[in-house]
Amino acid sequence: MVTPDETRPVREEDAVDVDAVVGWLREHAETAVPDGLPDVRQFPGGASNLTYLLRWPARDLILRRPPTGAKARGAHDMGREYLIQHTLGPVYPYVADMVGLCRDPSVLGSEFYVMERLEGLILRKELPVALEPAEASALCRQAWEALARLHEVDVSGVPDLAALGRGEGYVARQVAGWADRLSRATTDDLGDWSDLTAWLDEHRPDDSGQCLIHNDWRFDNLVLDPDDCLRVVGVLDWEMATVGDPLMDLGGALAYWVQADDDSFFQDFRRQPTTAPGMWTRRQVVDWYAERRGVAMTPERWRFYEVFGLFRLAVILQQIWYRFVRGQTHNPAYLGFGEAVGYLEQRTRSVVSGVVSS
Questions:
Q1: How far is 273 from 276, CA to CA, in rounded Å?
Q2: Residue 26 lies in a domain
Q3: Number of domains forming the structure of the chain
């Protein structure tokens, strides 16, 4: 399978000082940097941290840095994202090698880090080639197996990872934290979410466990083997990774998982090829994960995690919409985010009432 080049010219508002980056790398990188200046391209997306390709004739590197504009408290911590991957590499086989972390904002205007490029295929909205239903099912199993393996990493044996945890009460902190983020990203078109935040607070369970969680698990954060597109070889975007509840990680991931029988708006919202024949439904994912990890799960127990996942996704989009409305970003991809937040509000209410479920 041919891996497409998805990069594009760097947006003007996201421009980087190539000379400054290369100068810093030559002095501080953990491995030697090629001579000359690289061609710099930008990867699509960039709703959170921005990702660039630094391409020399014989080597590709990846640069990650925060976006311009106001930033949510505690977000866009380049040092944290770098440390997680640097520390996780020896105990989890799907992490890129780190090249260097720059904490000096005078170099680029913010902290940034550079890593090796993981060669392979990244899936977007549509599959690049048709898969048989059995192949699509096998790909789902590979993707969720990689998450299950992450949840089985013994963080207690890796001090830098264990230090990410804040102990029991993860679910309660998440419910309160995302409700607070929503309150600080209010726009005129935001509805009244008070009854939904109250429902989450009232129905929140105790933590189901403590493990390393990714917190942004999607196909477009997985790298597939270019010679075997059913095999996961890498996991990207560790910005929100932490030590927390694995079922919250699964709930957050499935908020993005659009299936073939979802309504037309949710279908338009889709960023992954999860409606292709043979792709698992959300219920199949939950059932497989529960059996794989020995978790007792019922539809009623799962309802909280599904509601929280949709609520969290709505807040993420609302934070971006807030930046767009205030003119802190001008990316036209964000034009429909306000409408998407309104849709997610209604979908979340439907799950609470039992009208819509996995």
A1: 6
A2: yes
A3: 2
- What is the C-alpha separation between 151 and 108, in angstroms, rounded? 35
**pLDDT at residue number 67:** 83
Q: How far is CA 338 from CA 157, 262, 313, 332, in A?
A: 43, 20, 12, 13
- 325 with 186, same domain? yes
pLDDT tens digits, residue range 285-298? 999 999 999 999 99
For residues 279 and 164, is the Cβ–Cβ distance under 8 A?
no
Say if residue 143 is in the same domain as residue 35.
no
Q: CA separation (Å) from 107 to 16, 314, 323? A: 10, 34, 25
pLDDT tens, residue by residue, 96-130:
999 999 999 999 999 999 999 999 999 999 999 89
Residue 124 lies in a domain: no
C-beta of residue 192 within 8 angstroms of C-beta of residue 269: no
Average pLDDT over residues 15-31: 94
User: Does 125 fall in a domain?
Assistant: no
Q: Which domain holds residue 86?
A: 12-116
Note the pTM of the prediction, 2 decimals: 0.90
In the chain, helix, strand, coil percent, each to 5?
45, 15, 40
Tokens 């096998």 found at: 138
DSSP string, 200-235: HHHHPPPP---EEE-S---GGGEEEETTEEEEEEEE
Instruction: Classify residue 325: in a domain, yes or no.
Output: yes
The reply to whether 92 and 173 lie within a common domain is: no
Domain boundary among 64, 83, 116: 116
Buried residues in 58-73 as b, exposed as e (16+ CB within 10 A): eeebbbbbbbbeebbe
